[in-house]
Amino acid sequence: MQPLQLLALLAPGEPVSGAALAAQAGVTRAAIWKQVEALRARGVPVEARGRAGYCLPWPVQMLDATRIRAALPSPWVRSLGMLEVHGELDSTSSELQRRLATAADLSMVLAESQTAGRGRRGRSWLSPPGLNLYLSCLKRFEPGFAALGGLSLAIGVMVLRALDELGVAGAGLKWPNDVLAAASHGGRGKLAGILVELSGEYQGPCAAIIGVGLNLRLTPALLRQAGQPACDLASLTAGAPPDRNRVGAALVAALAHGLCQFEREGFAAFVADYARHDLLRGQTLQVSGALGKFEGMGAGVDARGALQVRMSDGGLRRIDSADVTVRRT
Ligand code: BTN
Fold first, then answer.
1. Is residue 291 part of a domain?
2. For ligand 1, what atom is nearest to the CA of residue 123?
3. Number of domains in the chain
4. Is 190 annotated in the active site?
């Protein structure tokens, strides 16, 4: 028996006795107990309710490619390449990387859990099963990297458009593309992370593998393990995040639509939306990067997606890559 099989049996959110679980799975109660421990070790808060048995604190909708497709607006179903849901992968982005030669444009891979989820700057991305979303999308671009200025910022906008479609408000963008929202500790935390990996030519065909991790439910233990301030959709929706397959469909549709729009119109089509959600504009920023360390005021992004920082002498600096923190006043 695998931990995901047990997760599926507990998914309705009602307590089930160890004996009933063992009978349903055709294994011993000891095997059930082992898988309960395995799920807990991966961050899933399986509760023991005495004689009533084991229970999840909330119902979980297991990811299902058929349900995701059914929830997609029909024009986007036709434009998609493959849409696959895996139980467990090392990383959805690594899976697309391995299949890069043959995968069709706008192919999407989701996984219930990742064993080696990757974040930006060599960080890992916590990927417990049943709680969050891990999705990667392949988009091919004929003109090469040269035409992709602002792509990673545009993807932040696409994630916010998906949240808007789901009726979830309260998230914003921290340059270049962190999706942040109010966190339980009082500040802001990461609601979604975006990893864009490019391969191919500068002025010829190239491919972007776009990985999005979106937190739906983080337990206190996962929040501690995250290694950075984080938050989840549950906290933005009074504890009742939308159905996971609906969230998956909203993300798939926003990426399919947004990436085609980016291909036609570039970052220009996203500048206004980015500005509406820009959490750094008007904030005192501490910037550390290739230009050294300095302070200034966030002044939006330019047409290529570079961060603009107003200096105390009135001059404007444009930054393509740096660590930016907001100075607390
Ligand atoms: C970040 O560090 O902010 C980016 C996190 C990106 C995580 C996602 S989850 C789906 C895809 N697969 C991965 O291994 N990483 C990305």
1. yes
2. 2
3. 3
4. yes
